[in-house]
Write a structure and sequence with these properties.
alpha/beta; Alpha-D-Glucose-1,6-Bisphosphate, Chain A, domain 3; 4 domains; five-stranded mixed sheet; 18 strands; globular
């Protein structure tokens, strides 16, 4: 298990370890040495979201990269998928994003992309961590290091996104509510939809460094949903802080999460003959009702662990078209190897336009199992196998569903939380199972910690 890297990079609170100057500079230096093989130089494409702490972390990382002889191309405030895209276009050694994605404003994070624009493998993250433990910054910077602000990057990325929309998808027929989470896409996303001719209303487009994901964004969609229904718009879209995920509202103001969007995309891509193998990729968090719906329509599900990097790998290895997570991460492999909230919005809306159906029609096509996800704060992520009787207790709870439900218990890869997911035909059993597992975990984990 990695010590610093989680499901999506390194997360924490700036000013506290590991988000301090010395560690961040050594992290950059160690990553540079590992990724370049021998620290022979190259280019790093770097971007950040709208958090005020991103400026300091940028300086700390740049210091380490320059010590290793790497030139840093700073994109400024931009989205995670923009960095992933421009790594390939700039033929860079790697990409770095300073963002804690959907997390609250006080957090920040660092995640790396390979020269192919995908998240680093766990093996490579482990090698960087191993090197980091013995890394000391040299007194002098290596030759070739430097820093440059790339002011044209946003426009280049915007042109790419616009190019992915087929001509027959007439966005001039659309009116949408766009929620940018006071995050990285606050300018980029509205500009793109307006360039395509859509009528755009916005919320969450006034970042001040400390309001990202606050009362808006993919985890707090209520304002977007209300505004979509009140204005009688065709759709609402909420991005998260770094814009690698999207959550929708239909024209009635009803929430459409990643499972709803996957149902729409899979059905329409199959109808258009653009779903290779009639397969899609989902994570273990996707609702059982979605799996049943897809199977009834002759669409096979490839299941992977939580994390868009696992979705990406499955899509690439099996050369499939689309995959996603219930959280709103979706990957359209034809256009990008990583999750992209703006791209997801463009492709989903284009598919809906070509179908001639409103989003509400797709929302009503499948039945969702009652589901409850509880996040239990933890002081320490005690290995679940070390909690006395825990796995056996979970199995006993799952037996109560009699084959018509499931339980999934795991630690968050980005926050100090235990996530307990229950789904089943009986809502009361779902709620009871989650509560009992939470109580059992709390009681028996304290016993382990007090030993």
């Amino acid at each position: 298990m990695a010590e610093f890297f989680g499901t999506d990079g390194i997360r924490g609170i700036p000013g506290r370890f590991p988000f301090q100057k010395d560690f961040m500079s050594r992290l950059a230096y160690a990553a540079a040495r590992e990724l370049s093989g021998a620290g022979r130089g190259g280019l790093v494409v770097l971007g950040r979201d709208s958090r005020a702490s991103g400026r300091d972390i940028t300086r700390w990382l740049c210091a380490g990269f320059k010590k290793a002889g790497l030139k840093v191309l700073d994109l400024g405030v931009t989205t995670t998928p923009a960095v992933a895209c421009l790594v390939k276009k700039r033929k860079a050694l790697c990409g770095v994003v300073i963002s804690a994605s959907h997390n609250p404003p006080e957090f920040n994070g660092v995640k790396f992309f390979s020269n192919k624009g995908v998240k680093l493998s766990e093996e490579l993250e482990h090698r960087i961590e191993k090197r980091l433990k013995t890394t000391r910054l040299p007194a002098a910077a290596a030759r070739g290091g430097g820093y440059e602000l790339d002011e044209g990057a946003q426009a280049e990325y915007a042109r790419f996104l616009v190019s992915t929309v087929p001509p027959e998808a007439d966005f001039t027929r659309l009116s949408i509510m766009l929620d940018c989470a006071n995050g990285a896409a606050y300018r980029l996303a509205p500009d793109i939809f307006r360039a395509l001719g859509a009528r755009v209303f916005t919320i969450g487009c006034r970042p001040n460094g400390s309001n990202i994901n606050t009362g808006c964004g993919a985890l707090e969609t209520a304002a977007m949903q209300r505004a979509t229904a009140a204005r009688k718009l065709h759709a609402g879209v909420s991005l998260d802080g770094d814009a690698d995920r999207a959550i929708f509202s239909d024209e009635k103001g009803r929430l459409m999460d990643g499972d709803d969007l996957m149902a729409l995309a899979a059905l329409e891509l199959k109808r258009e003959g653009r779903l290779p193998g009639n397969k899609v990729v989902l994570t273990v968090m996707s609702n059982y009702g979605l799996r049943n719906y897809l199977e009834k329509h002759g669409i096979e599900v490839v299941e992977v662990p939580v994390g868009d990097k696992y979705v990406s790998r499955a899509l690439e290895s099996q050369r499939l078209a689309v995959g996603g997570e219930s959280s709103g991460h979706m990957i359209f492999r034809e256009h990008s190897p990583t999750g992209d909230g703006i791209l997801t919005a463009l492709q989903v809306l284009a598919l809906a336009l070509r179908s001639g159906r409103p989003l509400s029609w797709f929302k009503d096509q499948w039945e969702r199992y009652p589901s409850l996800l509880k996040a239990v704060p933890v002081r320490k992520k005690v290995p679940l196998e070390d909690v006395p009787g825990f796995h056996g207790f979970v199995r006993e709870q799952e037996k109560k569903f009699k084959g018509r439900g499931r339980l999934l218990v795991r630690y968050s890869g980005t926050e100090p939380k235990l996530r307990i997911l229950a789904e089943g035909a009986d809502k009361r059993l779902v709620e009871s199972a989650v509560e009992q597992i939470s109580q059992f975990y709390g009681k028996h984990t304290e016993e382990v910690l007090c030993r």
